[in-house]
Amino acid sequence: MKKLQVAALKEGTVIDHIPPKKLFKVITLLKLQNCDNMITFGTNLESKRMGRKAIIKVSEKFFEDSEINRITLIAPNAKINIIKNFEVVEKRPLKLPDEVKEIVTCPNPACITNHQPVTTHFIVQEERDVVLLKCHYCEKEAKLEEVKIK
Amino acid sequence: MKNRSLVSITDYSKDEILEILHLATEFEASPNQKILAGKIIATLFFEPSTRTRLSFETAVNRLRGRIIGFSDAMTSSSVKGETLHDTIRMVANYADAIVMRHPLEGSARYASEISPVPIINAGDGANQHPSQTLLDLYSILKTQGTLENLKICLVGDLKYGRTVHSLIMAMSHFNPCFRFIAPDELKMPDEYKLFCKKNKIPFEETTELAGNFDDADILYITRVQKERFLDMLEFERVKNTYTLKNNMLRNSKPNLKILHPLPRVNEIHPDVDNNPKAYYFQQAQNGMYVRQAIVTKVLGIK
Ligand SMILES: [Zn+2]
Hints:
- The complex is a heterodimer.
- By secondary structure, chain A is mainly beta.
- Chain A has helices at 23-29, 65-68, and strands at residues 12-18, 39-47, 51-59, 79-84, 87-92, 99-101, 104-105, 121-127, 130-135, 141-143, 148-149.
- Chain A contains two helices and eleven strands.
- In chain A, a hairpin with a 2-residue loop joins β8 (121-127) and β9.
- Chain B has a five-stranded parallel sheet with strand order 7-6-5-8-9, covered by helices on one side.
- The structure holds zinc ion (ZN).
- Zinc ion (ZN) binds next to loops of chain A.
């Protein structure tokens, strides 16, 4: 039997196949720094598919779709497994969220959100494999690669 | 539709646009009424725009409403560092509706979310200016008798000109056909061409003005600003070829009307002013009736 590189989880959520460079962004997006549950993570682990990968295991936590789907913005190929009693009971497909609030900075320097204490808010659209974020306030569109994720 | 803000022209459906235009027709027939008696409208101009402010204030005054507010940020509390949030909440205590102009894009949308009274956007930076769009539509309707199936030539700064972008959005309800006439530096952005394609709105593009609008019902001209050019020689060339002169109108359609959001600089030669096809001064005047319609509509009076 293959030896587990990160301790097994009894109940909770496993986020697998995260690019190692994106691990800390994923932690921030899911606000895990404020989470009191038991969390283990590993990075630069061997992966047949991607060479090196990172993984996060959060004990006794089951995310809302609106929370977990945020990570599609930075790690679209991550895999979400729901664990109950050491077994994978569900593989949750990641979907692009319809909207993102707070976590993205508007690239338009003249946007109100860059000058006043206003929570950012974007409408997410996908067109021919290009993910576009449209600012709810200044109405400017930007490609996902062009925006800064907090 | 009571107590609804007007931030962007896309906030209004086709029916709501037509309702505003219908109301404006009524106000043009009798612009002096008492229907805003007892109402207070705030005009908050965080950046100066005398033209727009006077138009809104006259619109309200002729309907017997009262005005409070300020005409530039230097006299307002935002100089002392007050947030837009706090200014709006404070003014909303006094006014039944707020007309605002602000240099930051998205400021009007944000204000509409935190304000208990309706917000009318009178320009948020380079973003939206819906009362301008509605007065453009009113001018088109009034001069053509319809908004449907018109050939509209948009001329000048099509890259940065928000009025032409909003006009495309608003006209998309009425089966138009566009020609975009602009120098390469100021071409219509892809975003709006894509919008036309998606909505099956035919359009053509050209870089020459002369001889390219003989089939048009509306010639909509915008200001070409020096600041947009890196090469001043190129600016001089564009400035001269994009000046509409009276003799260029010889073969135009009898129903053609020339619109311009004003102020103009060089784009229209003064010899056009006496041509009955010149409509830009009446267009500005139409703004007052349209603004009367907007104010009464957001207040739920009409
Ligand atoms: Zn923005």
